[in-house]
Request: fold
Amino acid sequence: MFQLNGTVFMPSVLTLIGIPGLESVQFWIGIPFCGMYIIALFGNFLIVVIIKSEHSLHEPMYLFLAVLGVTDIALSTCILPKLLGILWFHSPEMYFDACLFQMWLIHTFQCTESGILLAMALDRYVAICDPLRHAAIFTHKFLTQIGVGVTFGTGVLIALCLILIKCRLKHYRTTVVSHSFCELMAIVKLAAEDTRINKIYGLSVAFIILGFDTIFITLSYIRIIVTVFKLPQKEARLKAFNTCIAHICIFLVFYLLGFVSSFTHRFGFHIPSYFHILLSSIYLLVPPFFNPIVYGVKTKQIRDGVSKIFHLKDAS
Reply:
């Protein structure tokens, strides 16, 4: 690391300061974060085990749910350990390349989760609006292609963000990151050079992935709701709608939190910085914590699987 005209040339280490303005209560903030992380790990792991062990659950809806659980485990794990290290153990330093790698993991898993939510919405759309073609469309080969395509595609798009940072941004005003984890714009703002290309590309990727996913998911559920209300029998309407209610709850939590976080970050100029950082952390940590609870409560097959596992443990 070299100093040049008051700037730092290619820093090797960055310092994440956690939640500026709340240093005196950072330890206590870490407690609910840790609790959510433990519940997210346990809940999502339990759902994955249930779906894997029950052959009757090897259907598209539940296989997508298992992939969502694995993604939630990975997303929360690439954030929480370092975050708790900052809040509890005052360990803010992080190698620059490690920070970029964490940034790639966070945004890749975040976009992958959005893609899986879109796939789940399309699965429900076909199952309710065109049920005779559902088995022919959502084959195991097609499910594999969706999983690989979503993960690989988002990984490549986010990797280009890292390449643009490494190739274009050589000088930095500071090595102190005013954030609790390595987020794209938080790193780009450190640069002492023209960052317009980096910002434009980052916003374009966010719009292409999250924006289009939001639009198509919304259109799918609008079409589903219209179709459900056209069903002649009340019992059929309730049954069809009940298969979608958990998906709708997850969709609303994920995208509403994302919208509020993005809106306040870009337009809430008078909002304290610690509020932005807390909100962005909540946006990434609440869905992994919330998803298994919603599906455990609303999905009878998951509840039965949980009861079966604990019943066997009690019997042994």
Q: What stands out?
A: DSSP finds eleven helices and six strands in the chain. The chain has a mean pLDDT of 86. The first helix runs from residue 26 to 53.
